[in-house]
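Handout, page 2. Input:
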Amino acid sequence: MLALAKKVVWPKIGCFRLRNFSLGLLLLAGIAIAKPVNSADVASLDEAIRQLAERISAIPNLKGPIRLEVRQDAAFDEAEGPSWQTTLRRELDRHKLSITEESAAPLLRVGATETPTQIVLAADLLFADREEFRVVALKRAALQPEILSASPVRIEKQLLFESAERILDAASTTKTEAADLIVLIYRNSDLNVLHLDRTGTLKQSVSLSAAGAGPARDPRAELVPTENDDQLQLPGKLCEFNWSTPAEVNCHTAKTIWRALPTLSSPCDSTSWKPEADGNDWTAGDVLRVLPEEASRQGRVGLLSDFPGPILSINRAHDDHSALVVVRNLRTGNYEVYKITLACGN
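Output:
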């Protein structure tokens, strides 16, 4: 089940926290999203709601009234939200399941979650010391275009470079349109910066050890490409260098300002997204979470992409739709640089 859960497009963070949802309903929705529910016979949202109410009412020994909690997370507009909840209440009442606020009544929790291809309605009923689960799904294409939010956003992932040597960070060049790659290598206790073309072929390298850019015992360093000189941020120190005169490396004491996570813009609409990862467990694979920023959360879901090891750094790429992700592959032992890009469509 954990393997499936990594592939789930989880609900948006702004609506509700996952821990508030019952574990049973969460896992059930996870199965539905990781393996699409058969939705061929569901022609509309109203039909999906009617089917869900019918399946709930068919639970053995269930009698009304019931308590109802609705956790909406499908990417409907604000006007559509109250509409489908009203339809749900009407259909439950038609099946003799009236709604009450009495705490002793059975608790029915219903959630709506959008995947790139489906709208999944999942119900979790706490009843007579047991839980009952029901799911209905319909294809996104069955909804009118005005009901859905902007085109769905997905993550595309591309492996750019890998090395047996330790990679601390990666960045894109800023001075050319070729989107060359800069990689920071920790080699024999020295720091070396590699300039690679888009095929991963080495074009140039710079050693920073002669300039006193010695790393700490557990080094942390970040590349900061600029329009003039490239920079390397170290704890309490900033080093400047350029590829025209690579031997001229200037390091000086400076306040440490670690960079913020990049902001990615969606090519589908005007929304903005933030990538993040834990990277704290060096013994397990990691999951990159790309979440809509506060102003973009309405009607949006977070995106997940799993990696074969801990994520060590995240930096902006050459364009504002992409980011560079450094990972240590636990299967091979190599360090890898990936480019992740926001793309449109299913």
